Amino acid sequence: MLATFMYGAGDVRVETVPDPIIKNPTDAIVRTVRSCICGSDLHPYHSMHATHQGNPMGHELIAVVEEVGAEVASVKPGDFVVAPFAFQDNTCVFCREGLQTSCIHGGWYGSAETGGLQASLARIPLADGSLVKVPDVDGDSLDEGLLASLLTLSDVYLTGYHAARVGRVKPGKTVTVIGDGAVGLSAVLASRQLGAERIILMGRHAVRTDLGVEFGATDVVAERGAEGVARVMDLTSGEGSHIVLEAVGHMPAYEQAYGIVRPGGIISRVGVPQYEEAPIGFGSLFGKNARLAGGPAPVRAYLDAAIPQVLSGEIDPGRVFDRTITLQEVPAGYAAMGAREALKVMVTA
Q1: pLDDT per residue over 292-332, tens digit each?
Q2: Main-chain phi, psi angles of 233, to 5 degrees
Q3: What's the predicted TM-score (pTM) here?
Q4: Using an 8 Å Cβ cutoff, are 325 and 348 in contact?
Q5: In the CATH scheme, what is the code of domain 2-155+298-348?
Q6: What are the boundaries of each domain within the chain?
């Protein structure tokens, strides 16, 4: 089969490797229908030190089940499934509390043991907890729009939804979304779904912010830094935003977030932080009685409700994909996203 590996910054290769096999009775083997490149994949793409052994890439997938282990009960060969970006048993204490990304027995794709999901086939550990069947659907016959939207449920849309949910977005609230990438745009769509009264999108790329407006943004702020903070404060009559959804992960975005959050407000971060320390003192969070929330989205907690929303057409988050490539073309897809020539790239089998 073909699989994607990263050997260092800018060095992405698609290689022929052995097909995965069932290793544990709780495993499943799936055939890829669609995968994609994530914005978080760009962090190592820009900064990874060169290695002799490539790192398997990819964590977003919709697929058809090919084979299951003896103990798998919830899916069977032929089922069309969504695979959340982390694997989990969905039965441990943290899974039962809706924090599947903290599963005691779970983990992440992209290691030598698990492999990556930018591949022709994949081994899915803990398949009963890690795969969600799309009911009454033949994945090989769906149109591209539905495939794209279902694929966003493996990560990007439900990460944006997680930001809005833990940020406590609700009717009557002003929300500011920092970042016009796919997660930021998904956070706009989710905030509209949750009833936000006003949604300010901070982004500089017109094609992306135009989509953000279609998703529900009421205002767009192109300025950054102190100018961006001043602009949002002006839009909110000097009061700031009830909720700030930070979808970038870099320190300047966090600094903007605490600059614009309203006293008593919430900053919800889902951009993977590229820093270890962040201000929380009087001039940032403490003085405003502001709260900090967010983290890796427990996609599995939201999937059962989100799949019918996509199938019914209530939401169409797949519009964040603006380029489709084959698996062999994945290195070019990374280059396009890294150069901001593509918003989010979908990969066919």
Answers
A1: 999 999 999 999 999 999 999 999 999 999 999 999 999 99
A2: -65, -35
A3: 0.96
A4: yes
A5: 3.90.180.10
A6: 2-155+298-348, 160-294
